[in-house]
Amino acid sequence: MILDQLVDKNTNYKEDKHSESPVRSIVKSVSWRLLGTIDTITISWFITGQINTALSIGGIELISKMILYFFHERIWNNIKWGRK
Question: Per residue in 21-38, pLDDT tens?
């Protein structure tokens, strides 16, 4: 019921297939990773008590997970399963 309300019934697969551009995937990757990195830095700082260590962990994590998310998103954009 709730899921049906969230899904636009007027969109077909051909229209939706191209709606997720690579630039959109990059912007989504960056915004999500910034939020995730703030979380990682906060947790790392809490555990280690050292802000420099926390920032180092967060910096590495920011780059590596953005790259992984971009490719994950692009692969899923090509999978037909679950699309109408």
Answer: 888 878 887 888 889 999
| Alpha-helical runs (H) found in the chain | 2-6, 13-17, 22-48, 51-77
Cα–Cα distance between 51 and 64 in angstroms, integer? 20
Distance in angstroms (rounded) separating the CA atoms of residues 62 and 55: 10
Cα separation of the two ends of the chain: 17
10 vs 68: CA distance, rounded Å:
32
CA distance 46 to 49: 5
Prediction pTM value: 0.57
Q: Reduce the DSSP state of residue 9 to 3 states and report it.
A: coil
- Residues found in the chain: 84
Q: Residue 41: CA atoms inside 13 Å, Cβ hemisphere, count?
A: 14
